Amino acid sequence: MKKYLLILFVLCWLPLLSQAQSNTVTGVVTDQDNFPLPGVNVVLKSNPTIGTITDIDGKYSINTSTNDVLVFRLIGMENQETAVDGRNVINIIMQAEFFGLDEVVAVGYGVQRKSDITGSVASVDFTELENQPVATIDQALQGRVAGVQVTANTGAPGGSLSMRIRGIGTINNADPLYVVDGIPVDDINFLNPNDIASIEILKDASASAIYGSRGANGVVLVSSKRGTLNTAAKVSFNAYYATQSVINKWETTTGPEWYGIQETLNQTRTSPLDLSVLDRNQNTDWFDEITRVAPMYDANFNVSGGSEKMTYSMSVGAFGQDGTIKGSDYSRRTLKLNSDYHVSDKFTVGSNINIQTNEQHSILEGSYHTGVINTAIKLEPNVPVWKDKANHVYDYSRFTDYPNPVAQIEYDNSKDLRLNLLGNIYAQYELIPGLTLKTSYSQNSSRNDAYNFVPAYFVNVNQQNVENEVSRDYTKNDYWTWENVLNFNRTFASRHDFGVMIGYTVEEGTYEWVNTSKKNVPNEDEALWYPGAAADGDNVTGSATEVALISGLGRINYSFDNKYLATVNFRMDASSRFPKGNKLGSFPSVALGWKVSEEAFMSDVNWLSSMKLRVGWGQIGNNNIGAYPYQTTMSGNAQYRYLYGPDESFDQGYVVVNMRDQNIKWETVESYNVGLDAVLFDGRLDATLDWYLKDTKDMLIGVPIPLYFGYEGGPISNVGSVRNKGLEVSLNYRERVNKDFNYNVGFNISTYNNEVLSIGSGQPITGGSYYLGSATRTEEGQSIGYFYGYKTDGVFQTQQEINDHAIQMGTDNTGLQPGDLKFVDVSGDGTITDDDRTFLGSPIPDFAYGINAGLNYKGLEFNLFFQGVQGNEIFNGMKTHLYKFDETNKHKDMLNSWTPQNTNTDMPRLNGSDANNTNRTSDRFVEDGSYLRLKNITLGYNLPRTLVSSIGLEAVKVYVSGQNLWTITNYSGADPEIGQVTTTNYLSRGVDIGTYPQAQIYTFGIKVQF
After folding, report:
1. CB hemisphere CA count around 727 (13 angstroms)
2. Which residue blocks in 353-437 are alpha helix, DSSP H?
3. Does a structural domain hold residue 508?
C-alpha cells in the first residue's frame, strides 16, 4: 500500500511535456442568448496544460498549432470542441444544460442519465454548498432536499445528526444506508465536506431496492471529487475562520427573583427552606458561566487533473471547532486520494483512499439528572460558582444534589481519539463492446480510543470523588466488502436501449471492544493517566460481535424510442442477523417512466422543454436490529455475582436475560411512488413532484411478558407495522438578465403523515424518559413516539369552579384552592385518572421546507438559504424542573403565578405542599416546535481576473457568511431544533432535557485557485 501511494503521489505531480506553438487564436465565447461568458476554460486537447480563461467580456487568447483542437468547458454549459484549421479568430456559442438533465448520476451499482431515471432520486451538487461553514456533510443537506429531514441531536462539536428519508418507518434504527464511492458505511460524519462532488439520495423502493436489506430507510450515495482526463493540474486552497456563540438562553429567574419565589413557597411548605444560608442578592447566571464565544476553522488543499490515461485527485484538510459550551471541542484531519488509470481502451483500474483522524472532548449530555446543560439551567442562581476562588474551592447547592456544572467541566478529562480508514480498489474490463465486468474490494476500518481520568476532588457530599480513577476504552471495527458487477448496455434498431446489470457481493464485519479501569494513581500528573500507573481495583470487560451478508442482485433498464422507460430491480440477501430458515430476504421493485415531452403531440408546446411521468413500486428490507436478536445469550454483569459456601467466596453468576424468538425475519418496507419531472421555459424552471406511500411490515418489537416467566425482558418479534405517506415538491428557477446579472430562486416542501398500524399485543410502548417518567408513547392509530399525558384547562378561579369540576384530588377535591391547576376529564367519567391521559402532539412535523435564493452581479455573489418545519411539538423537559414547586431555579413565567390580585394568568399559585400533582406529564410542557430559520447568508466577491493573473493565480474569491442568524419560533427553550436525546434512543425524538443548542456562526473565508 505504501508503495502504491508513493507511485500515485509522484504521478500526480509529474509534469507533462509542452509542445511548440505557431499560431495565436482569439475570440469571444457567448451563450445562446448572445451574452458573453466569463470564466470559460479554453485548453488544447493535445496538451491540456496549455490553456486560458475567458475574461469578463467572454474574450480569450491562446497560442496553438494550426492543426490543434480547442476545448471549451464551463459548469452548467455543454462542453464544446472545435478544430483550429489555421484560423486566427474563433467565436463560440455554448449551449446551456437543462439543469443537468442529461448528466450521468450514480444510481447504485452503476450510473444513469437523469432523463432516464424512473425512481425518486434527488441529486445535490456540493459545489453550491462550498461557502457554508459546516463540520459534516449531513449538516449541509439540511433543508436542501424534499423528503429528507436532517435534525441535529446536539449542537456539540462533532455531534450526531438524524437523517430521515420520507419519515420514520420503524421504532428501531431508521438511519439510511450511506454508500461512499461504492463503499457501504454507517454514517458520513467523518468525511470532509470539501472532498465531496455530489450526493444522490435514493428515496423510494424502486430506486433503493437494489440495496436490499439495508435500503429500507433510503440510500445516500456520496461521490467524491475526481480528476478528469486530459486536464492540466488544478491546485486550489480553501480556508475559513469563524466565531460561534449561543443563539438563545433559557428565561430563568435572577437571584432576587428566585429568592422571592422561595419565600412564597415557604409559606405553604411543611419544612420551609432556611433561606438565610444564601444571599438574596447573589445572582449567578450558570448558563453564562459554562458558555463562551468559540472559534472554528477549516483549511483544505487540493490537486487534481489528468493525462491521456490517468486521472488523480489529492486533498488534505484540517478542521477545528471549540464548542460554545466550555469543555467541548472537536478537531479532524483528513487525507483523500482518488485515482483512475486507463491501462487500455478496455481495461481500467483505480482506487479511493480516505484517511481521517479526529479528537473530541465532550461534556455530559443525555442525562436528565446531571447533564452539564441540564444542571446549569436548574441550579439556583443564589449559589456562587466559588466559595473560595483563591484556594480553588467551589460552592454548591444547599438544597439539591445537583452538581456545580463549572466544577463538572473542570473535573471531566474524557477524550475520544478516532482513526477511520475507508478505501477501495477496483478493476473494470470491457469483455465485448457494451459488456463490462467490474470487481472491487473495499475496507472500512475504525479504531477508537476513549480516555478518561477522574481526579480526587471534593465539592460537597453529593459531588466528590474520594479516590482518583483512570479508564481506557478501546474499540475496533472492521468491515470489508467484495463486489462483482457485470453491466451490459446496447442499443438495438436505434430505438431499443437495454441496460442489464447482475452482481454478487459478500460482506463481513467484526466489532470488538475492551474497557479497563483502575484506581489510585499516586501522582495526578497527566503523564500518568494510564491504567498501568494505578495501584488498585483491576476491572476489565470486553465483548465482540460478527455480522455477514451475501447478496445477489440484478437490474434491467429499458427505453423505447427515448419515450417509454422501465426499470426492474431484484436483490436477494442472506444475513447472519436472522435465524436459519429466515436468513434469506428477497426484494423486488419495478418502475415505469413516460417522457411526455417527446411525443409528437407536444412538439408545439414551446414553453415545455421536458416532462416525464414516473410510477414505481418495490419492497426493501431492514436488518439494523443488532447482531444476535434471535440467539439466547448469557450475561455476567456485576449484579449477578453471589456469595457461595461456608467461607462465602465471591463467585460470578450468569443469567439468560431476555427471552428470544427463534423465528424472527426481515422487517420489510413496501412503497409506492408517483412522480413528475419537468423543465420549462427554455430550461429556466425545473420542477419535481412526488407522492409516496410507504408501509413498514413485520417491524421488530419487544413483546412484553409476565414477570413470572423469569426473564428481565420479552422477545423481539415481527409484530409491528407503520405507514408513512406524503407529498414532495421541488421548484428551481434561474434567469440570466444580461451579461453581468443573473439570479436563481429555489423552494422545496415535504409533507409527512406517520401512523402506527400495529404493535402486535396492543400494549403501548413508552419512551422519552425524563425525571418524572416517560414523555412519549407509541401505539396503534397514532404516530411513532407521540407525546402522551394530561390536558390542562387553566387554573381554578373560584371555589364554585372547583365544586363543579371532575374529582382530581381525593374523593371530593378537598384541598384544592382557587389558583390550582385544572386538569381535563377526557374520559368524561367525572374523575381524573390515568385514563384521562391522551394525545398531546407529535415530534414529527406536518411538513418541512427550504427556500434558497442567489444572485450574481459581475464579481459579486449573494446567497440566502432558509430552512423550517411546521406542525411538530417539543416536550420541554426542562420546564418540568423550572415549573416545579421545589428548590431548583425557576422559569420567569412563575413570576406571573396566580394570586387573588393576579387572576388573569395560566400559571398556578405557588404551593409548597402541592398535593395536586401539578407537574405531572401534561400539555403544560408540550410546545409548538415549528420554526423558520435563516440558515445561511453569504456575500462573496471574485477578484478581477486581470488582477489575480498578474500575481500568478487563476482565481481568488473572498466571502463572509452567517449561519443560524435569525429564527422565528414559539418555542420557549434555547433552540427549537431538537432531535433524539441519544443516537440510539429512537423514541426520545423531540424531548428537550437540556439539549446542546445550535450556534450562531460568523465566517470569513477565502478560496484560491492556482
Report:
1. 3
2. 372-378, 405-411
3. no
